[in-house]
Amino acid sequence: MVSFISHTTVDCADAFTLSTWWKEALGYSDLDDDPNTAGDEECMIRDPATGHSVLFVEVPDAAMAKASGGKNRLHFDIRPRAGTRDSELATLLNLGATTVADHRGIHGPGTGWVVLADPEGNEFCILRSESELSVSD
Prior knowledge:
By secondary structure, the protein is of the alpha/beta class. It is 25% helix and 25% strand. 17% of the residues are buried.
């Protein structure tokens, strides 16, 4: 028997606020039959193109703390659907993301990624777009 990933779950302090932020960052939307509203303890969003879903679940503050205070054990690597990594980086920073580490150019010009944090401090990486990969590879 083989399983598949139903959705990705993100523990958070405010499910509605964080799901709204990620909807804008990723271009995802609420489920048609289950729209998210302020005060919801669980909010799911879905990619209209692929069907991938992310579920945001409110948990107590103690559960939010990273066990070792270090790097996330699991994180999103996102790739712009259009444009460039750097243009998407500017958009995400304008939405309220913060820069954690900048690894652009790590393997020469036009390579690398940037580590960001969403408004609750969850780290994720912004990669080069498919068009940038095809030019440099």
